[in-house]
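Example record

One chain of 149 residues, shown exactly as stored in the release files.
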Amino acid sequence: MEKKMSDVLLGMTGTGLTRPPGELNPLLLAYLGDAVYEVFVRYHLVAKGMLRPRDLQREATRYVSAVAQAKAGRQIESFLTEEEMNILKRGRNAKSGSIPKNTKISDYRYSTGLEALIGYLYASGNEQRLQEIMEQLLTHVEKGKAQDE
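Predicted structure tokens for this chain:
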């Protein structure tokens, strides 16, 4: 029987994880979450009617920067469950060994925590909650963008 997209999350192969998502290193969860966040942002921008690659890349950067992610993440904290906040904090507190230039360490760490949460929800197969949180994040980035303009 052929699997439909809704049967398997995008990108998942038939091979399962070697341990439950909650037991993975938070930096691994952030690695997954970074990619998942990027896919959501790209789809969101194309769905909004942005069709020129140069414009898409420039606009996507406004969503995926550590500053934008940290700001939006802080704004949805009250929307998160205790378990989700714990995952975010594990990711935030993980030491990655590198900090990008032109980014405050607090924003970089918080965005890593947010990506860890997104990676956790993705790896757990919790599509509904992932969708809810991503919609909240995208809405807050949009609001922040409008205030900056």
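Notes: Helices lie at 26-47, 53-64, 66-75, 82-93, 105-124, 127-148.
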